[in-house]
Amino acid sequence: MAKVWSSRVSTDSGQLFIDGIAASELAKEFGTPAFFIDEADFRDRSLAWKQALVASFGEKAGNVYYAAKAFISVEVAKWVKETSLGLDVCTGGELAVALKADFPTERIQVHGNNKSVSEIRRAIEVGVGVIVVDSLFEINRIATIAHTLGKTQKVLLRLTPGIEAHTHESIATAHEDVKFGFSIASGAAWQAVLEVRLHPEIDLRGFHSHIGSQILSTDAFGVAADRLIELMARFRDEFGTELAELDLGGGYGIAYLPSDEPLTPEEVLPSLFHAVKNACLLHTLEIPKVSIEPGRAIVGPTMFTLYEIGTVKKVVLEDGGDRNYISVDGGMSDNIRTSLYGAEYMGMIANREASHNLVLSRVVGKHCETGDIVIRDIYLSEDVTPGDLLAVPATGAYGRSMASNYNHVPRPPVVAVLNGKARVILRRESEADLLGLDM
Ligand SMILES: *Cc1c(COP(=O)(O)O)cnc(C)c1O
Asked: Where does ligand 1 bind, in terms of residues with CB under 6 Å?
């Protein structure tokens, strides 16, 4: 199967299978729409990033922090724990999931540009490993809370190295107009370094950057590493000691379409090591411990969404051609990425051998928005009919995690498949859940 599917997905006579279970059976047992996650694939991908980090960096390998925001549930947090990765959380809610899974707190790293005082207090209380500092206000909050609790808190400073990278393009000019981090170019980063050093409750371990998402070339990570290491050299020059840690974030791209070339861990990490080593040589610095934070690259390819097709409508286009509007029983409430940032997906009829005569189609949801589109342009069989199942691959990241209840639609379940068995790890919302908040 094409790389857009997880490794245990196959097809036979038009029927899609995951780990030997047919899509029609899954739809019957769990309903639609639903997300199906290939558990072994999730674990394999987690380990692949970890092993590649160790292979490239040896004793200088830090943590692979799985970015919870891509998708987290208590069960998935347990898988992350068992594969001995770390976990990035960026809200109190994500931290609550981690704690519920008994995730080792010293392997949790806390992000966020607007952490509340109570979020910071809980993080320090439970003993999270690292807080990634994003503003000057936060430095004082962390110091005050740590002081009250009689603790010292390890931190990294999130820096904006003046690069923004998305998909194929990276802009290595001064891209500073963002809400995250301290800008290196403006001097804000250095000001944060000076501020942090005033507080004995704060243990500054090093610097962090996260330069974008769905990045398909490794160059930009190298530029970011250069700029962070240059500041580490300034730190050494001023204070006579070296910072020991560097976190280069996530953002590694995956294949959504068969034509996409994803970044593999075996490509990314040697090139990161090369960039870090060269920058350290240039400044005669010891190589720091390097951590990374893949989210999408771990969970994205492990899931697909299964929808049932409801209505099919032929619409005549201005140029005289036509397009099939194929409506599915979900939409922007389970996948906002297409309407939010023009994401592209492929899809296939998953329950039967459909006609090989393909026609221009658009897969749309059931919501009251013209922009409620799952797949903007796709060629699908001309004989697609109500009751058919449509599977959309690579929906593991930022699908269920960004899901909403728009139009009072219950959010879909996540079903884990392992060794030919399927089980619900996050149940479908019910009408009672939807009405449960009304007083
Ligand atoms: C979103 C995010 C990630 C993960 O990004 P992916 O594109 O899913 O790999 C990692 N680190 C930080 C700080 C983030 O905000």
From this structure: 67, 69-70, 88, 111, 210, 213, 249-252, 293-297, 397
Q: Which two tokens stand for residue 97?
A: 């999931």
Residue 319 burial (C-beta neighbours within 10 Å; 0-12, 13-18, 19+):
exposed
pTM of model > 0.85: yes
Pick from 22, 24, 18: nearest CA to 5: 18
Q: Which residue's alpha carbon is at the smallest distance from atom 3 of ligand 1?
A: 250
What mean pLDDT do residues 389-406 have?
Answer: 98
- Pairing mode, strands 322-328 and 348-349: unpaired
Ligand 1 atom closest to Cα of 214? Answer: 7
356 CA to centre of ligand 1 in angstroms: 39
CB hemisphere CA count around 10 (13 angstroms): 7
Rounded distance from Cα 313 to ligand 1 centre (Å): 38
Ligand 1, atom nearest to 111 Cα: 13
Through-space distance between the first and last CA atoms of the chain, rounded to whole angstroms: 49
The SS3 assignment for 140 reads helix
CATH code at 111-294: 3.20.20.10
CA-proximal residue: ligand 1, atom 15 (nearest) = 210
Report pLDDT for 385.
97
Domain ranges for the chain: 9-38+301-435, 111-294
Helices (H), 83-135: 92-100, 117-126
Q: What is the pLDDT of residues 303-326, one digit of tens each?
A: 999 999 999 999 999 999 999 999
Mutate to test the pocket of ligand 1, among 210, 211, 292, 298 (most ligand atoms within 8 A of CB): 210
Residue 47: CB partners within 8 Å, gap ≥ 6? 83
C-alpha dihedral (234, 236, 239, 241), degrees to nearest 10: 160
- Range in 123-132, 168-177, 327-336, 348-357 with the lowest mean pLDDT: 168-177
User: According to CATH, what is the number of the domain 9-38+301-435?
Assistant: 2.40.37.10
**Mutation probe of ligand 1 site: the residue of 293, 299, 302 with most atoms within 8 A of C-beta:** 293
Query: What are 39-59's pLDDT values in tens digits?
Result: 999 999 999 999 999 999 999
CA 144, 149, 152: angle at the middle one, nearest 5? 75
